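Chain A, query sequence.
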Amino acid sequence: MSGHEFESYFPESGSVDLADRSTSIDETTYAELRELASRYPQPRSALLPMLHLVQSVDGRISPKGIEACAEVLGITTAQVSGVATFYTMYKRRPAGTHHVGVCTTALCAVMGGDVLLDTCTKHLGIGVDETTPDGSISLERIECNAACDFAPVMMVNWEFMDDMTPEKAIALLDDLKAGQEVRSTRGARITSWREAERVLAGFPDGLADEGPSAGEQSLLGLRVAQEKGWSAPSGPGQASLKAASSNATDAPNEPAAQAQQAAAGVEETPEAKVPPKQRRKATKPGEGAAK
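Chain A, predicted structure.
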C-alpha cells in the first residue's frame, strides 16, 4: 500500500456479488436471450431487456447472467457489468418477492412521501435498499414516477399505488406479506417482482389490459371539456397538412413536399418547377453562373 490508493465511501456502489455463483439460468434462458438479441438490428441493443430477463430468472444480476449476456452478444463481461451497475433497476443483491418503492421527490415529498417511507421502514423493520429477513419485500426510495396528480405514490413491482397514506401503506405491506391479492390503482393485479421483470424483458404476461389505465385526476380535465363542449383550436396549417397528406397518397409520382405546398397554397419557386434532371444540369460548375 502506497497510501495513495483511492478509498471509496460507497462500498456497495457498482459491485455485483461475484462470490454468489448460484443460478437458475439454463438452456431455455439462453434461447430467450438469443431471441431478444435477434429482435434488434444491432444485437447489443438488446442488453437492457436481457438483463431484466436475467433478474427474472436469478432474482438479481448474477455472475452467470453477466457471462451469459456477454456470450450471446459477443462482448466482454466488463462491458455487461458496466451497464448492469449503472442503472438502479438492476439489483446486485437478491431482491424480495415484491419490490416496494416509495417516491419522495418534489410533490410526493410535499404530500407526505417521506412519512410514507418512514412508515414502511418501521413496519417492515428494514432500511432503504434492504430486504425483509423472510425475503418477501425489498424497499427502495425512488425518484419521480411521473404521477404527481396522484401524490404521494408508491409502486409495487413497478405498478402504481396512488393517493397513499400511512394507513394504506401498512395495509398494502401486510397484504403482500400474507400473499393476499393486491391490485394496482391504475393497472393489473400484482404478480411478483420476477414476473414483472420478465415483462420488462419483453415477454408479455397477458395482464396489460387489466384494470383502469387512467385515474380520475387524469381524466377530470377531459370530462370538463366534454361537458362544456370545449375543443383544442386547430393549429395553423393543420387542415392544409391533412389535405396534403391525402394528395400525396393520391399522387405517387409527385414529391410529398410539392403536394404539401400545393395544398397549402404555397407557390413553387421557379427552380422547383424545373425537372430534377435539368436542375442538376443547370448547377454543374460553370453553368448558370452570373456573367
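The first helix runs from residue 27 to 38. The chain has a mean pLDDT of 83.
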